[in-house]
Specification:
The complex is a heterodimer of chains A (99) and B (642). Chain A is mainly α. Helices cover 79% and strands 0% of the residues of chain A. In chain B, strands 1-2 form a two-stranded antiparallel ribbon. Chain B contains 26 helices and 2 strands. The chains are: A mainly alpha (99), B mainly alpha (642). The interface between A and B is medium-sized, with 14 and 12 residues.
């Protein structure tokens, strides 16, 4: 399998994640979508690293995974706080920025 | 400092200017009142001394002009400022300085009861006026003349409205300002057009051009007419004369200085200064002559029906200004100028005398006076000297100058001459009506004067701060007021005696014109005496019933009481025009200006409303926007930049 297959897979995962972020009403779902998008990035990094024979990309993907985990922790904490304050986690109800 | 006429003229000019600046800037000193007054009077005295020196030196042949370049453009001075001390300007300078000094001195007594701040303000304006008027008289070019011309107009406005708490005074001030301004627009247009024609503002250069016959004549008639318009506004010629009688709302010394002796004669002076120019346009001169004579007659008729002593004098001034204009129109401007000078003396005398009467009686109303000759003999005496001068009786001030005007007029046009003869009769009549009513007739409270209104409005207190009960024991005024009166009376009499015997007035040369026929002088005197006799019969002896006499002139009398409806006409026509114009402007403002703004603002609001909707506040929509934006960016980079 060539590099292209990996890139197509990564793009597909990224698009699924983006679709989830844009369309899910539940905030937890949006967080899941963000995880998918970040994993698509990881796939890209690993694929380029493998085909270029350079380990920097792999190291970088480890960093990304760490950040992803922290992000998920902070994101879920925000969602829980949000639920306490607003009694809802539905993203379309959170429109205080409405102009 | 050289010892030329121009240097002294410059000193005479600058002394009141310095006084004005000092009083205007140093407010605490101005508010002291009396001190400021003494300071101003002193500077006026110094100015008078310098003016007399300049006049004597000029008479000795030491003529001069001082000028400094002003508004230099591309190396060429557009205009100059300075003083031009020649025969006419120096003698006029002496008149201005003299009357200004006497009036300021007289005001010390007349405005004795004014609060200090008001007195300081009064003398500040007086000093500014003296400076502006002298600047006008000495102006070597039309630009400086115009600036000073406007300045004296401003002073006139300020001093008419000196008692600005009185609504009539404030209204009169505005009326005077606007009416003269209507003429001033003409003057400005004339000056600019003249500059376009000749390329200079300088009077001497223009005169040289005119005398050499090289003056471009194209469109000159329009220019001289424009200049005449300015002069007509200032010198109260029909139909712009309506402001002068109202200007009497100011203090009486102001009326004497500005509205009798000096400022209102500025128009005559201007036409005299530019007489060589007007000589090139005989058509305009004809208009000047006719309007002058007509104004003289109109104002004389109006003066016959006035009950306010100052208004009689005001119309008399208008009438005499018409006389001067008629002389200028007849092409003998020096005769008009001579009358300007003598008139300045005796009309200032008459006004100051009237001021003394008003001060003593506490009212301007003639029917409320009477028998004052016994109570204030000195005032009566000087007033009669002034009246005889005005009537043109031999040995008194106005005789020679009035003869000169009549002589000039008969050699030119018969029509104006006849009008002027009628005016001579009326002048003697209405002035002696004042004399008899105020000084000799028995002080009857219910006196009904022949040509006067039978219905009196509430008596106006002429002297604003005079106590109402001041007329119980009228007496001669204090020395500060009597001295100027006597000085003016002696000068009027002296000029009259000298000129009657020698046929000319010292310091003034009247241009030669066709000799008047021998019957002119006797008939002019006879006409004046007839006027006096009629006034005597009607108002002193009451042989002729004033009411019956008035009935003979029924329509004219009614018209005169209504001031020939001129004020109403102006008010109506100008009012209607202004209203129509204002409505038009209002419509433009409401529907065009406001409309454009309203439409633009409505668009802005609705556009904001529409654009606002994209700010949903939902985070997902923004993410969507970011994603779409990124996509567009990628596509753009792919196809547009590749």
């Amino acid at each position: 399998m060539g590099l292209q297959s990996y890139l197509i897979l990564a793009a597909t995962v990224f698009c699924i994640g983006l679709f989830g972020v844009v369309t899910r009403r539940n905030t937890v779902g949006i967080l899941l979508g963000i995880e998918l998008m970040l994993n698509a990035v990881n796939i890209n990094l690993i694929a380029f690293s493998r085909f270029a024979g350079d380990t920097v990309g792999m190291v970088f993907s480890v960093f990304t995974i760490c950040i992803t985990v922290s992000e998920a922790a902070i994101g879920l904490a925000i969602v829980i706080l949000l639920f306490r304050v607003r009694r809802t986690v539905m993203a379309d109800h959170l429109d205080l920025l409405k102009g | 400092m050289s010892r030329d006429a121009d240097s002294f003229a410059l000193i005479a000019l600058l002394m009141p200017a310095a006084a004005f600046l000092f009083l205007a800037v140093v407010a605490p000193f101005r508010r002291t009142g009396r001190l400021a007054a003494y300071f101003s009077v002193l500077s006026a005295a110094g100015s008078l001394a310098a003016a007399i020196l300049a006049w004597r030196l000029e008479a000795a042949g030491i003529v001069g002009r001082l000028s400094w370049n002003w508004l230099t453009t591309a190396g060429m001075p557009l205009a100059t400022v300075g003083v031009l001390a020649d025969a006419d300007s120096t003698v006029m300078l002496v008149l201005v300085a003299l009357v200004a000094f006497l009036v300021q001195f007289y005001s010390l007594g007349y405005l004795h009861d004014e609060p200090p701040a008001a007195l300081g303000r009064y003398y500040t304006y007086q000093s500014l006026f003296a400076f502006s008027m002298m600047g006008l008289v000495l102006a070597p070019n039309l630009l400086q003349l115009f600036i000073c011309w406007e300045l004296v107009g401003l002073c006139s406005y300020l001093l008419i409205g000196f008692w600005y708490q009185k609504p009539e005074a404030a209204r009169a001030a505005v009326k005077a300002f606007w009416t003269t301004k209507a003429g001033d627009v003409g003057l400005l247009i004339g000056i600019v057009l003249l500059w376009r024609l000749t390329g200079t503002f300088d009077l001497s250069e223009m005169r040289a051009l005119a005398t050499s016959g090289a003056f471009p004549l194209a469109g000159l008639g329009f220019i001289t007419f424009c200049i005449y318009l300015g002069a007509a506004g200032k010198s109260a010629q029909f139909p712009l004369h309506v402001w002068l009688p109202d200007a009497m709302e100011g203090p009486t010394p102001v009326s004497a200085l500005i509205h009798a002796a000096t400022m209102v004669t500025a128009g005559v002076y201007l036409l005299h200064r530019t007489s060589w120019l007007f000589a090139l346009t005989p058509d305009v001169l004809l208009i000047v002559a006719w309007i002058g004579a007509f104004t003289a007659l109109l104002a004389a008729v109006l003066a016959c029906v006035q009950d306010d002593i100052k208004r009689v004098l005001a119309y008399s001034t208008v009438s005499q200004l018409g006389y001067m204009m008629a002389a200028i129109g007849a092409g003998v401007s020096s005769a008009g100028f001579l009358h300007l000078l003598t008139h300045g003396l005796f009309k200032a005398l008459l006004f100051l005398g009237a001021g003394a009467v008003i001060h003593a009686v506490g009212s301007n109303d003639l029917p409320r006076m009477g028998g004052l000759a016994r109570r204030m003999p000195q005032t009566a005496l000087v007033f009669i000297i002034g009246t005889l001068s005005l009537a043109g009786i031999p040995f008194f001030g106005g005789y020679i100058s009035k003869e000169g005007i009549l002589g000039a007029s008969i050699g030119h046009q018969t029509g104006p001459f006849l009008l002027l003869m009628i005016v001579a009769f009326l002048t003697a009549f209405y002035m002696f009506r004042v004399v008899f009513l105020a000084f000799f007739a028995s002080p009857a409270p219910t006196v009904v004067s022949g040509f006067s209104r039978t219905h009196h409005g509430p008596a106006k207190a002429g002297h604003y701060s005079a106590p109402e009960g001041g007329h119980h024991s009228p007496h001669d005024p204090p020395m500060t007021m009597l001295l100027p009166l006597w000085l003016l009376a002696v000068l009027s009499l002296g000029v009259g005696l000298y000129s009657t015997f020698t046929g000319h007035v010292p310091g003034v040369t009247v241009a030669e014109h066709e000799g008047a026929p021998g019957w002119l002088a006797p008939s002019a005197i006879a006409v004046a005496v007839a006027g006096i006799a009629l006034a005597w019969l009607v108002y002193q002896r009451r042989v002729l019933d004033a009411e019956k006499l008035a009935a003979m002139f029924g329509p004219i009398r009614r018209a005169a009481i209504a001031k020939f409806w001129l004020d109403d006409l102006f008010e109506g026509v100008l009012g209607a025009l202004l209203f129509a114009f204002s409505r038009f402007i209002g419509w433009i403002d409401r529907y065009l200006v406001d409309g454009v703004l309203n439409v633009v603002s409505a668009w802005t609001v609705s556009a904001g409303d529409d654009v606002r909707l994209i700010q949903t506040g939902r985070a997902q929509d923004y993410v969507y926007g970011v994603a779409v934006g990124l996509l567009v960016l990628i596509l753009w980079m792919r196809w547009a930049l590749a």
